[in-house]
Amino acid sequence: MTDTKLTVQDGMVVSLDYVLKLDDGQIIDSSNGNEALQILQGSGQIIPGLEQALYGMAVGEEKEVEVAPEDGYGENDPEAYQMVSPDIFPADLELTEGMGLRLRDEKGKAIEAYVAEIGPDGILLDFNHPLAGETLYFQVKIAGLRPGTSEEV
Asked: Would the pLDDT of 2 be above 50?
């Protein structure tokens, strides 16, 4: 039997410890204190820039990864804003700027939006991901690695 070191490649289940920061150094997400994030490599379960950076890593390896907006949550799309009447919301719902909302489109599909602005002309909703336009800074460590089962793949 050969002693082959497992590395991250398509079809592998990766257990990932991570810290995510923005340009200003603010930590916005982390697996610290939680179980490692488990993903099936190559299946698009995480943003492309981070998934690409994991290839070839082995258990215990650490890396700092910078992900540009186009390889993360995309650029902020100015077309992804919509002004709506406050009448579409329940009267007892107190809207605040930055508040996340789960809405349904005409076909009943759930979509997420954020209150960008509350003004005299209505409520401006932002349908961009909250991290759109941001460069993301990850500190990652491969906590575990195994081949995916046929059900997982």
From this structure: no
Threshold 0.85, pTM exceeds: no
Match 């089962």 to its residue by tokens. Answer: 149
Return mean pLDDT, the chain. Answer: 94
| DSSP states of the chain | ---PPP---TTEEEEEEEEEE-TT--EEEE-TTSPPEEEETTSSSS-HHHHHHHTT--TT-EEEEEE-GGGTT----GGGEEEE-GGGS-TT----TT-EEEEE-TT--EEEEEEEEEETTEEEEE-S-TTTT--EEEEEEEEEEEEPPTTT-
Q: Average pLDDT, stretch 59-82?
A: 97
pLDDT of residue 1: 46
- Cα–Cα distance measured from residue 26 to residue 75, given in angstroms and rounded to the nearest whole number: 20
